[in-house]
Amino acid sequence: MNQIPMFKDDTIIAPATPPGEGGIGIVRLSGPGAEDLLLRFFSPSRVSARLDSHHLYHGILRDGAGQPIDEVMAVLMRKPRSYTREDVAEIHCHGGTLVLRRILDVFLSGGARLARPGEFTFRAFVNGRIDLTQAEAVIDLIRSRSQLASDVALDQLKGRLAGKIQEFRGRIADLLAEIEAAIDFPEEDIELDTEQVLGTKTGSLLADMDQIISSFDSGRLLRDGLNILIFGRPNVGKSSLMNSLLGEARAIVTDIPGTTRDTIEEDLVLAGIPLRLVDTAGIRNTDDPVEQEGVRRARIKVDSADLILLVVDGSVGLTEDDFLALEFCREREVLVVQNKSDLGCLPIPEVLEGFSVVNVSAREGNGLDELTKCIQERFSGDGKAADVRETVVLTDRRHRQALLHAREALSRFRTLLTRGISPEFGAVELHEALDAVGEITGETTPDDILDRIFTKFCIGK
User: Fold this and answer.
1) From its phi and psi, is residue 195 left (phi > 0), alpha (psi between -120 and 50) or beta?
2) Going by C-beta distance under 8 Å and a sequence separation of 6 or more, which residues neighbour residue 272?
3) Inter-residue contact 178 to 193 (CB < 8 Å)
4) In Å, how far are 402, 417, 428 from 411, measured between CA atoms?
5) H or E stretch including 329?
6) Domain membership of residue 405 as a residue range
7) Per-residue DSSP letters for 155-184?
8) What is the full per-residue pLDDT of the chain (461 aa) written as tens digits?
C-alpha cells in the first residue's frame, strides 16, 4: 500500500479528539510499545506495580525531564480486548492545543510514530477485529447526517451487511466445491447435482442478490443525501421557499427580480431525509453579465440534481422565462411548485399536466407539509425509507459494483447450465463471483482500494 503500511512492530499515536480548544482531549497509542511508553511518562496517583487493563487511572503526565505537563486520566487496554487488537493506551487530558501538542511530542520522542489517517481502524481490519464493510461503516457513522443514516451505518458496523455477504460467499463456495470435487477426483465418480438443481440454486442466489442491489438507491440517498435544486424564473419566490424550508432567513428576499446572482447551498434533514438545498439565480434572458453568469451556474446544477423544484408563480400565467426554465430541466426529475397560493392559483396549464404539482405559499408557510410529503415519496417510493431498519441496505457504490460483478459471473454460469454445457466449465465463473463478493468484506480487495478507503478517515480513527 502507498499510504498505510502494514507495520506490526511499531507503535502509533494520534489525537482522538478534534483540533481546537475543548474541555477534554484524548491521545491514543496503539502497538507493542504502548504500555511501556505509558508507564515511562505517566505517574499514577496510587503507585501500582502493574496497571490493570481497562481501568482508568488518575495521575500526572511528565516529559522526558520529569517535568509535569498535565493532570490526566489514563487507561491501558491490553490486546486483544482493544479497538485494534493491539495494546492500546489513551491519555485523557485537558483539551488545549498546547497541552495536546506537548503530550504528542513526548511520546514521539519516546519512539512512537504519528499515525496516518485511518490507521487505527486499518489495524483493526488487518488484525481481524472487523471486516472491510465494518471499517467503512465507522466513517459513515461519523459522517451521518440523519437518524436513519446513522441507524444504517450502525447496523453495518454491527456486521449486518457482512453477514449477508458471507452468506452469499458461502453459497457460491458450496456450488464451486461440488463442481471442483468432481473435477479433482474423477476416479471417485462423485455425482453432481443435476443441471436443473444447480440452476435452481443459482437462480435463488441471484434473486437474493437482486434484492440487496435494489436497495442501493435508497441507501445512497440516506448516506449522501438528496440534492434538491430550487429552479425557476426571477421573482417567483425561490429564495422565500428556501428560507421557509430551512426555517430561517438564509437567502435575501426582495421584490426586485434577479436578487439572487449565485447559488446558495444549505443542508437540512426533512422527514428523516438528509437534503442539500440549492437556491439558484432566476432563469431568464438578460444582458447583465453578472446575472448571465448566475444563470449559467444554475443550468450546470441541473445535471447533478436528484430532484428539481421548478417554482412558478401560481397567481399568474406562465411567462416566456417560465417556459425557458422548464426547457432547461424537462429531462430531469421535476416537481412543480406553484408558489403564492395565498394570492390564488390559476388552473394548471396544459404544459405542466404531466408533472406532479404542489401548491404552496412560501410567505405564509402554507402547503409546506404537502411539499415535504411529496419529496419524501420521491425518495422512498413504497415506504422503503421506513424499512431500512428491517433490511440490509447498500449505501456504498463500491459494494454495489462488486455485487453486480458477482451477479454477472453467476448469470453466465446459469446460462451455461441452461445450454446443457457441463457444469465443470462454469468453475471459472464461480471463482470470479467468489472473488467479487470477497472484495466487499476485504478478503480479495486490492491494496489500492484499501488505501483509498482508509485515507478517507481522520487522523486518530
Assistant:
1) alpha
2) 146, 147, 148, 376, 385
3) yes
4) 14, 10, 12
5) helix 320-329
6) 145-215+393-441
7) HHHTTHHHHHHHHHHHHHHHHHHHHHHHHH
8) 445 555 567 999 999 998 888 889 999 999 999 999 999 999 999 877 789 999 999 999 999 999 999 999 999 999 999 999 999 999 999 998 999 999 999 999 999 999 998 999 999 999 999 999 999 999 888 888 778 888 888 899 999 999 999 999 999 999 888 887 666 555 555 555 667 788 889 999 999 999 999 888 878 877 877 888 888 888 888 888 888 888 755 544 444 444 444 568 888 887 677 888 888 877 877 777 776 777 777 777 788 888 889 888 888 878 888 888 888 888 888 898 888 888 877 787 878 877 888 898 888 888 888 888 888 877 765 444 545 556 788 989 999 999 999 999 999 999 988 887 877 788 899 999 999 999 999 888 888 888 888 888 777 77
Do 231 and 209 belong to one domain?
no
Give the largest CA-CA distance in the chain. 88
* CA distances to 136, 334, 399 from 455, in Å: 11, 37, 18
28 and 85 within one domain: yes
Grid cell, residue 358, equals: 404542489
127 and 85 Cβ atoms separated by less than 8 Å: yes
Total-model pTM: 0.76
User: Are 398 and 377 within 8 A, CB to CB?
Assistant: no
Q: Would the CA dihedral through 305, 306, 311, 317 be positive or negative?
A: positive
- DSSP secondary structure letter of residue 33: T
d(CA 343, CA 315): 6
Count of residues making up the chain: 461
238 and 378 housed in the same domain: yes
Sequence-ordered list of residues with C-beta below 8 angstroms from that of 451, at least 6 positions apart, any chain: 1, 2, 3, 4
> What are the grid coordinates assigned to 78, written together?
491490553
Are both 342 and 415 inside the same structural domain? no
C-alpha cell at 7: 507495520
CATH of the domain at 271: 3.40.50.300
Amino acid at 137: A
Split into its structural domains, the chain has a count of 3
Q: What would you report as the CA-atom Rg of the chain, rounded to the nearest whole angstrom? A: 29
Judged by DSSP in three states, 238 sits in helix
Per the domain annotation, does 82 fall within a domain? yes
Is 179 in contact with 423 (CB distance < 8 Å)?
yes
